[in-house]
């Protein structure tokens, strides 16, 4: 029996036409884009699983809230409606809106990170990693070893390794660690959750050493739902109650609201420290806008205020997690290896296992992303050596990630069962001819965030 597909806890009210262009047109589009799917036209995608960030379908309540948007420059009603929701859900003393998550990361790094300092986390995702590096800092990933074993079914593979964190703090000391972070869920490691037990241990260790603790909260609702499903003692608690317990452990958070607040644009930065918040406001005014709009229109703030609650709805979360598990099961039944257990927002295909003949410096996950578009007009994203290989400034050698993954991120409330079946069938056809597929090389690559603008050619 296949994994049951969860019935959507909504019905479709507005539709957007999509079309599958011909194989010849797809090949031409790939060449024009330098074989980088970020550089391609969205209208040339049949199913777009590039990201779940800002790509979901907003509800009728969110669209109604947009019509209520107050576009006053300072102190708009929209800001105060969002402020009420943020205080209710997260509980921090201070907050400011930003235009998206990387803006919050940029402001936090500008205020806290100095050249040569280290910022530990379970696994930093791309923009967090880049914002730390852009300030001369060094990101460190201290996730548990189980995270690097695709077949290990540890229920909380996003957990920080406490022994590694203790050793890291002992090595570098408080003066070299301006803040510590953790990402929930752990996007770079397969959308895997972090347990409350681990969050408490991480918070205690940071605070024992006087290190401010910030949560990257982009997919916090999915993480809290996994805690409810998998961690003893939380079965009877609401997702919102679990969220409040989680954020009470931290000194602040950054968030891309384009994920679990189900909006097309927006972010948050929250904290308890008065002095830091004043510095954050000053930086925000310089780079984003006045602190009550943070680079957003009032209508965006209103949509976010509604979306924060919709993202916590447990019927929705059950469907959301179930939809992802369904796609993973379809792929696994076809012999396509994915990160186990299935994470929250996407399915992570083990491209290195499908293409063992392609070395990491020839980008097997990028090759799979290209081949999936070529096969079915489907766009995913490489999470491997294009995104995360880095040149170590100390020994001038390239360090490659342990896993070469193709992420199929599922936009919220957007695609149906038949769409996901089509994705699985397309990947199955690729697997049948995997040995014939070759890798790629760069023709252009920037220093930071290469995956967004790099260009390639086939080998």
* Number of E-state strands: 16
CATH topology descriptor of the largest domain: Aspartate Aminotransferase, domain 2
Overall mean pLDDT stands at 95
Q: How helical, in percent, are the residues? A: 40-55%
Description of the molecule:
The protein has 459 residues and is an alpha/beta fold. The protein folds into 2 domains: 23-52 and 313-458, Aspartate Aminotransferase, domain 1 (Alpha-Beta Complex), CATH 3.90.1150.10; 60-310, Type I PLP-dependent aspartate aminotransferase-like (Major domain) (Aspartate Aminotransferase, domain 2). It has helices at residues 23-32, 60-67, 77-89, 101-112, 126-134, 162-172, 196-208, 220-230, 239-248, 274-287, 298-310, 314-333, 351-354, 364-376, 385-388, 417-431, 450-453; strands spanning 47-48, 94-98, 118-121, 138-141, 180-183, 213-216, 252-256, 267-271, 346-350, 378-379, 381-383, 390-391, 398-399, 405-409, 440-444, 455-458. The strands form 6 sheets. A 5-stranded mixed beta sheet has the order 2-8-7-6-5, with helices on both faces. A 3-stranded antiparallel beta sheet has the order 9-14-11. A two-stranded parallel sheet has the order 1-10. Helix 3 packs parallel to helix 11 (298-310) and helix 12 packs parallel to helix 16.
